[in-house]
Amino acid sequence: xxxxxxxxxxxxxxxxxxxxxxxxxxxxxxxxxxxxxxxxxxxxxxxxxxxxxxxxxxxxxxxxxxxxxxxxxxxxxxxxxxxxxxxxxxxxxxxxxxxxxxxxxxxxxxxxxxxxxxxxxxxxxxxxxxxxxxxxxxxxxxxxxxxxxxxxxxxxxxxxxxxxxxxxxxxxxxxxxxxxxxxxxxxxxxxxxxxxxxxxxxxxxxxxxxxxxxxxxxxxxxxxxxxxxxxxxxxxxxxxxxxxxxxxxxxxxxxxxxxxxxxxxxxxxxxxxxxxxxxxxxxxxxxxxxxxxxxxxxxxxxxxxxxxxxxxxxxxxxxxxxxxxxxxxxxxxxxxxxxxxxxxxxxxxxxxxxxxx
Length: 357
Hints:
Elements: E1 2-5, H1 13-24, E2 33-37, E3 51-55, H2 58-71, E4 77-80, H3 85-93, E5 101-104, H4 117-130, E6 135-138, H5 140-149, E7 155-157, E8 182-185, H6 195-206, E9 211-215, H7 223-236, E10 242-245, H8 251-259, E11 263-266, H9 274-282, E12 287-289, H10 295-301, E13 307-308, H11 315-326, H12 341-353
Parallel strand pairs: 1-2, 1-4, 2-3, 4-5, 5-6, 6-7, 8-9, 8-11, 9-10, 11-12, 12-13
């Protein structure tokens, strides 16, 4: 089996490689082989238990994948996320057989958030390619969304190996009820966070004295959108109450930033930011999500309390949700990093032994 990281995604690819090297490699037969798109392979880190082959761009990796698939039809490819149109096209044309492909959905590649004729065509082709894969893995919400179009494809719940700080996370004290809330808005500078809409909602529900923290460390090249978000935040709140985090923070610092917040506000309409949600849950910080976010299915299945954008939101609702989070057992949550290992073991050992038909 060849593991494929088909796009150069700096905040996810090293996480997957580290997880395989540190956790899974000792339990799998042979040395896991990864093909990774990376313009700067030295940034991927050192992984002595893995074989890692880097390709300069998505098209180069896709060419190698097609050549290998044609030469050895018994070869299997485990696609970790997928943001490569060249790989989807290879599946769609039959250059790569669907029985050779297992796909772990990361969210963004499953949903259709752009309009227009070009987007409609691209989405139509990609949707057709999704139906060609031999098996899919993902959150319960993502799998439910996928099955609407492809009910016959074998599927299995599987969670991204989110990183957590090495030390204990100490929950911050509950807000006193007298001081303004501190609200973290979004998990990145991705436009899917709908920052401006979230800022307006926070102002309307919690008032102009609210402090807002806006992580904006990635994706790169987002300066124009960052200026729009900053301008909107400064119109709605005093500048000293706005903290726009334009530099990428290391994990410990990010966890500490989240722990000092009283509420998270995440209204993306797709599964996103599970790592951030995990950090908030560990710190007993309540969060708001969009009713359109399919990850609500996973949260509800684990009886994790959360709040909905557009619902009844006030300081009392926040306090009730915080108390519910404090009563949870972190060790029992299925998508917590330590609990996802068994699912990965099942997925990969089955993928290694099941021969394509």
